[in-house]
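[Discussion] Sanity-checking designs against the backbone

I'm trying to build intuition for which residues belong where. Below is a structure token string of 383 positions. I'd appreciate it if someone posts a full sequence so I can compare it with mine line by line.
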């Protein structure tokens, strides 16, 4: 006598099917945690995963140095993410078996003349008022810890807790960790449309094919507003903000350990000898030209604080498009369309904000509990 399969095998609960649109560090990290917790996750990337803003970034984790660029809620989010970093990196490195070069030398903001110094003093008083762990240094004190800084450096603020990571290694580690837990990564596979029925996201269209999903996460960086299907009010207002970058190559051991914020450029030394110099900030739409003026400004800005840059071979030049929202803060959390979650618009802070976005969005999906940390960043603030 034959038994029906259901009679001999207990029914497995269906795994929730999540589609993530965009395989940058935000989409990959959420996917990693969901796959690890037994969700059925597919990430679609229009190009190669992690090759957009995630690849172009410099990997600086600087909520304290960039305090002037952000409102209080965003600073709190950045500080929370910085706090999560060591443990988050530990888990990622253990799951992926890839080291992401998390460096804890700190950040120095430097001035070169009286005007810069006045600005730096103002910045420093703002940091002190916020009780951030920072220290004022004379030029000589700054050169004691970074001997190759220019004699022209008049003063510095040491942001001892502002660290850095190698964002490109982080991309590789996230892909590895995501796939290790069964995540499905579909690259060069643009999602054309999100299908909505009765104010509920029910799936996506890839070319003409409909793919059903229980939940959709939109994390497509500066392309997030271009996916069809969303009503105008639900399209995240994200635009591309062009950043040109250049890397020179130092000998190892390197001539610089700290991240340097100079008046006209920042410098991020990586353990493999690359010195990343960034970045322009241009409202040029999707233009990705590398310009002589952009390169000139960056090299001059770097050379002024670190004259040895003059001798170093150029390793690479590139352009990234930061996803900037209307208020330059990220767009996070549920929307008024059921089963559609936003995790986009991280602008200059995508790498910094990855752990907190990963934790808050994946736990929102797993527990359905609202998060007070991301409440100020919901799409509805623009509606
Ligand atoms: N996070 C630095 C930049 O966007 O240039």
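Best answer:
Here's mine. Compare freely.
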């Amino acid at each position: 006598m034959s038994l029906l399969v259901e009679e001999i095998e207990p029914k497995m609960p269906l795994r929730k099917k999540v589609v993530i649109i965009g395989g940058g560090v935000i989409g990959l990290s959420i996917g990693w945690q969901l796959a690890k917790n037994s969700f059925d996750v597919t990430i679609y990337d229009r190009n190669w995963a992690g090759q957009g803003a995630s690849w172009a970034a410099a990997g600086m984790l600087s909520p304290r140095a960039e305090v002037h660029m952000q409102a209080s809620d965003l600073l709190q989010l950045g500080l929370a993410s910085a706090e999560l970093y060591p443990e988050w990196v530990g888990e990622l490195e253990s799951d992926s078996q890839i080291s992401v070069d998390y460096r804890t030398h700190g950040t120095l903001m430097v001035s070169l003349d009286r005007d810069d110094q006045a600005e730096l003093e103002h910045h420093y008083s703002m940091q002190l008022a916020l009780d951030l762990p920072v220290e004022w240094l004379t030029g000589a004190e700054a050169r004691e810890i970074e001997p190759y800084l220019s004699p022209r450096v008049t003063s510095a603020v040491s942001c001892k807790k502002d660290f850095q990571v190698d964002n490109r290694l982080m991309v590789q580690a996230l892909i590895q960790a995501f796939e290790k837990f069964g995540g499905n990564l579909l690259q060069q596979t643009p999602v054309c449309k999100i299908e909505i029925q009765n104010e509920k996201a029910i799936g996506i269209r890839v070319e003409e094919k409909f793919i059903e999903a229980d939940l959709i996460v939109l994390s497509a960086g500066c392309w997030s507003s271009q996916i069809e299907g969303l009503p105008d009010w639900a399209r995240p207002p994200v635009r591309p903000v062009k950043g040109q970058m250049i890397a020179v190559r130092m000998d190892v051991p390197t001539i610089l350990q700290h991240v340097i914020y100079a008046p006209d450029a920042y410098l991020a030394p990586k353990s493999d000898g690359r010195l990343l110099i960034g970045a322009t900030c241009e409202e040029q739409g999707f233009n990705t030209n590398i310009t002589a003026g952009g390169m000139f400004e960056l090299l001059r800005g770097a050379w002024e604080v670190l004259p040895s840059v003059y001798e170093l071979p150029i390793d690479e030049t590139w352009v990234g498009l930061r996803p900037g929202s209307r208020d330059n803060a990220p767009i996070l959390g549920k929307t008024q369309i059921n089963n559609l979650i936003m995790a986009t618009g991280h602008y200059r802070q995508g790498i910094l904000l990855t752990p907190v976005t990963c934790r808050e969005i994946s736990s929102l999906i797993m527990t359905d509990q609202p998060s007070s940390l991301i409440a100020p960043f919901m799409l509805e603030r623009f509606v």
